[in-house]
Write a structure and sequence with these properties.
By secondary structure, the chain is mainly alpha-helical. Helices cover 74% and strands 0% of the residues. It is globular.
Length: 199
């Protein structure tokens, strides 16, 4: 292995370590109560290393959402081309919600949502270039093309409704003290929404 390759590997390991420690601290203490100093101390790294990989604390969340979006893209690519687009939307929602609960967890999602409300640094919920929004737009366009959704609804309005349903389900789940799953909150809502816009 070359020196450059070794350096890149060390850099990736350091970035992963910072990411894991930061997310754990955010979930335990809340985004605003965690400093960069605390992250580098707990991860046994340096401020220089932190800022080499992340411009701000918020970029830690952005990095995590890039990983999440990669999973969404894999789910989308797994659908057979001839599958009904409404079924695709339902399955996509189900897998998305399971992933958020299993891989992100309720504590971290609560922190992410509260941080997004408190800081204008958090733009990933509205970032139209994310795979999530591109996938949803593609599925909704396909549903209209295949005459499964009423074309009276614009793509932008449909996309807004779906993302609002997702966010509402996640927020409501975050408020609950029960063991009820995120999927159980989101699926009935999504089914009702799709029924309302279907032909």
């Amino acid at each position: 292995m070359t020196k450059l390759a070794k350096k890149q590997l060390r850099g990736e390991k350091t970035k992963k370590k910072i990411l894991e420690v930061a997310l754990k601290l955010f979930a335990e203490k809340g985004f605003n109560k965690v400093t960069v100093d605390a992250i580098v101390k707990k991860s046994n790294t340096s401020k220089g290393s932190f800022y080499q990989h992340f411009r701000t604390k918020s970029d830690v969340f952005l990095e995590r959402f890039k990983e999440v979006d990669t999973f969404y893209l894999e789910v989308y690519k797994s659908f057979p081309p001839n599958m009904d687009p409404i079924e695709k939307l339902s399955i996509f929602t189900q897998k998305l919600m399971r992933f958020l609960e299993d891989e992100m967890g309720k504590d971290l999602m609560k922190v992410i949502y509260s941080a997004a409300l408190e800081s204008d640094e958090h733009t990933y919920f509205l970032e139209s270039n994310r795979y999530l929004f591109k996938i949803l737009r593609g599925l909704l366009e396909e549903a209209i093309e295949k005459d499964r959704i009423d074309p009276a609804f614009s793509i932008d309005d449909l996309l807004t409704m779906v993302t609002q349903a997702y966010m509402g389900a996640i927020y409501h789940w975050g408020l609950q003290t029960t063991d009820r799953s995120l999927e159980s909150f989101s699926i009935p809502l999504m089914q009702t929404l799709l029924k309302g816009v279907s032909k």
